Amino acid sequence: MSTPLKLTVLTPERRLLSAIAIQELTLTGSEGELQILEGHAPIVGNLETGIFRYRLDTGENSFGVISSGFFHVSDNHVTVMAETLELHSEIDVDRAKKAQKLAEDTLRDADLEEHRFRKYQLKLQRALVRQQVGSSSGDKT
User: Fold this and answer.
1) Phi/psi of residue 87, each to 5°?
2) 62, 64, 77, 140: least surrounded by Cβ within 10 Å?
3) Largest separation between any pair of C-alpha atoms in the chain
4) What is the CATH number of domain 92-134?
5) What pTM does this model have?
6) Looking at residue 139, what DSSP letter applies?
């Protein structure tokens, strides 16, 4: 009998999930979107800002937005360590729209230093993904 796939999600502020049984996980890595199923080969990778989805053993889907971090898969256990992770129900779309406007306004500054430019590029990307997820019912993600 095989061991079910387990998921643990950690951020600096909280332990969001702790070894819950799941059917599958989809996350955005540095090489693109990655789906992890039971029996996945061991892997370690970087996370990028994007949509984070998982299906519980009950068949219920859950999703949100994840930002940079790392993930590790070994022995049917996935550990996700992310800078931030917001579930669909936690996303404030109006706040994301304000963050988008601020990032766009800042990026228009021609004298912006390279590190600040990259910082606001990431803020813009995160705001857009948060709006996409916050406005979604989950069927399209």
Assistant:
1) -75, 160
2) 140
3) 61
4) 1.20.5
5) 0.72
6) S
Q: Give the integer Cα–Cα distance in Å for 17 and 69.
A: 16
Strand extents, DSSP E, the chain = 5-10, 15-29, 32-37, 43-47, 50-56, 61-66, 69-74, 77-82, 85-87
Q: According to CATH, where is 1.20.5 located in the chain?
A: 92-134
C-alpha span between 88 and 3 (Å, rounded): 28
Task: Identify the residue whose tokens are 């950690």.
Answer: 10
Domain with CATH 2.60.15.10 in the chain: 5-88
Is-contact 80 69, C-beta < 8 A? yes
First to last CA, the chain: 31
